[in-house]
């Protein structure tokens, strides 16, 4: 067999890797009608005084490390990276959005890493002993990276800056890269409309892509979420949002101090 033929066979085998069985956990959603709406049609998801409407990913309550801090939502870093201790874990707003614009102000501590995730599902699988376990939120959700680009090593990893702030993590770099330094406020705005996704950072458009297209599948195959490397993530992200093309907005626990405020969503129909 020639080298070219061998590579072809190996590629075919990789493409046939299948995802393990999984369950999408469905829980009651909050009623958006109970949240204030401004004159421009933006629904406030955080009023600076309570975590009403929020809960932990895969949980019924807000994890202890997510706290109110002078009108912001703060994650108190554990220093464990993605370890997510029992008192931590990702935070989601308990309503699934389909076509929407979300705007979030954020700042990070020195060397911090976090993320904004959207169209997320709560995914459950079984371990080798048959025990139920929650998969990480990013297995089903695109991520707009939050990062201290100067001091966190992830900024230099990936390809051509696709792990820097407001990038589509590990797939598309945010350009221009206009993130402000740690301890300064940034704004991320994400529009999701009928498969078209646009990221804005500090008022500038930094990327655009299109879900559920051959190009989307190609990007996944070139990333850490490829069918060969991570078949479950590939299957979920390739069809992200599930059959209804909707999902949760989430804030990531990556073990570092990070603050969020002025979180608002406009429904686009």
Q: What do we call the CATH homologous superfamily? A: Exo-inulinase, domain 1
- The coarse overall form would be globular
Q: Give the averaged pLDDT, no decimals.
A: 93
Poorly predicted ranges: 1-14
Mind telling me which CATH architecture this is? Sandwich
User: What name does the CATH topology carry?
Assistant: Jelly Rolls
Structural class: mainly beta
Q: What gap, in angstroms, lies between the N and C termini? A: 55 Å
Major sheet: 8 strands, antiparallel
From the structure provided, what is the oligomeric state, counting identical versus distinct chains?
A: single chain
Q: Encode the helix/strand succession as letters.
A: HEEEEEEEEEEEEEEHHEE
- Provide a count of the helices: 3
Number of strands: 16
Strand content: 25-35%
The value of Rg in angstroms is 19 Å
Helix content: 10-25%
Number of domains: 1
**The CATH top-level class label:** Mainly Beta
Written account of the structure:
There is one protein chain. This protein is mainly β and 269 residues long. The protein has one domain: Jelly Rolls, CATH 2.60.120. Helix content is 11%, strand content 33%. The chain is built from three helices and 16 strands. Strands 2, 4, 5, 7, 12, 13, 14 and 16 form an eight-stranded antiparallel β-sheet that branches. The N terminus is likely disordered.
Summed up:
With 269 residues, this protein is mostly beta strands. It has helices at 3-15, 214-221, 231-238; strands at residues 23-25, 43-44, 54-56, 66-69, 72-75, 91-97, 100-108, 113-120, 122-126, 132-134, 143-147, 186-193, 196-201, 204-210, 247-251, 258-267.
């Amino acid at each position: 067999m020639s080298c070219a033929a061998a590579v072809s066979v190996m590629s075919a085998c990789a493409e046939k890797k299948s995802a393990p069985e999984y369950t999408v956990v469905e829980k009651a959603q909050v009623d958006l009608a109970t949240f204030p709406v401004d004159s421009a049609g933006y629904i406030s998801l955080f009023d600076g005084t309570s975590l009403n409407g929020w809960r932990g990913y895969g949980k019924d309550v807000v994890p202890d490390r997510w706290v109110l801090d002078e009108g912001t939502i703060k994650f108190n870093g554990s220093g464990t990276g993605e370890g997510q201790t029992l008192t931590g874990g990702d935070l989601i707003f308990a309503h699934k959005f389909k076509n929407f614009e979300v705007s979030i102000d954020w700042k990070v501590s020195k060397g911090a890493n976090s993320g904004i995730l959207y169209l997320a599902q709560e995914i459950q699988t079984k371990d080798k002993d048959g025990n139920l376990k929650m998969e990480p939120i990013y297995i089903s959700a695109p991520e707009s990276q939050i990062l201290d680009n100067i001091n966190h090593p992830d900024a230099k990893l990936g390809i051509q800056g696709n792990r820097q702030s407001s990038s589509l993590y590990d797939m598309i770099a945010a350009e221009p890269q206009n993130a402000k330094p740690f301890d300064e406020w940034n704004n991320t705005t994400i529009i999701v409309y009928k498969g078209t996704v646009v990221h804005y950072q500090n008022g500038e458009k930094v990327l655009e892509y299109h879900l559920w297209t051959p190009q989307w599948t190609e990007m996944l195959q070139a990333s850490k979420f490829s069918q060969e490397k991570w078949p479950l993530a590939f299957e979920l992200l390739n069809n992200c949002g599930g059959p209804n093309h909707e999902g949760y907005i989430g804030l990531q626990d990556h073990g570092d101090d990070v603050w969020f405020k002025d979180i608002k969503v406009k429904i686009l129909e």
